[in-house]
Amino acid sequence: MKIATIIVRTLLGLLFLYTSISYFLHLNPEAASTGEFKAFQLGLVASTYLFPLAKSVEFLCGLSFVTGKFTTLANLVIFPVTLNILLINYFLTPDNLPLAIFVFIGNLFLIFTHWENYKGLFKMD
């Protein structure tokens, strides 16, 4: 289980680092979007802060996953992002759904493997 955790953590970390660095450095051309996804994406871009915020969170969590430091915190911080990635791909761009499922399930897997660290969040005193 420890090796699987390291593999999943590293793959997710590298994926988050790649997507965030390529966003900030404009390494990849913008993919042409159409239909409802294009309208959704234009709304996100119009907000001016949401994409940079999400990509900054992805960068910090990706760094955390790759280095293995603060992974318990990174799992919680990146969870809403991975859920959003899953839902956007499910409803608007189903072609990318397999990667979105991997990212979301990978995040859940890492939370499960660090569950001892989260038990205190659910205590009722």
Automatic annotation (TrEMBL):
It comes from the Bacteria. GO terms for cellular component: membrane. It is a multi-pass membrane protein. The keyword Lipid metabolism does not apply. The chain crosses the membrane at residues 7-26, 73-91, 97-115. Pfam families: DoxX. Its main location: membrane. It is found in: Membrane. Keywords: Membrane, Transmembrane, Transmembrane helix. The keyword Glycoprotein does not apply. This is DoxX family protein. It comes from Flavobacterium frigoris (strain PS1).
